[in-house]
Amino acid sequence: MTIRRFREPDRSAIHRITVACFEEVSLHAIAQRKYGAFRGGAWQERKLADVDADLEEDANGAFVAVEDDGVAGFITTRCDERTGIGHILNVAVDPDFQGQGLGAALLRHALDHFAQRGLTHAKIETLVNNAAGRHLYPKLGFEELAGQIHYMLELPPRPVLCEP
To answer: Of 4, 6, 19, 158, whose CB is crowded by the most CB atoms within 10 A?
Structure first.
């Protein structure tokens, strides 16, 4: 397995892995299960749009784990030089390759990337139901700082007022 910087031809594999991995740990998917589809398409479309935005914002901070058959995992990051914090936005490993250490390898690669950029801290967020992440992140030295609760309210339908 090798880890290298994201290339545009990797995008379709990243999309496939995203859809395969985020159904149980994506706020988009959780909200859709409760309320149905939202504007902007199904949860998969909204999550893929988020990942694409991350790739566009900092393609140099996106990395893929490559096995013989192609892309087996990916990580997207953002560097905030102003605060010295590196943000890990997404990390996912193809289900066929999970349990082999690829997620940890991708995270270590991102941490090296942050250090090379002169950053002083790394931050990752996860949902409480992401058992794999909650197991892995502390093993790599991440410390839990605080919990966060996501609330949503369905608004009653109202007529849309159009201005002339």
So the answer is: 6
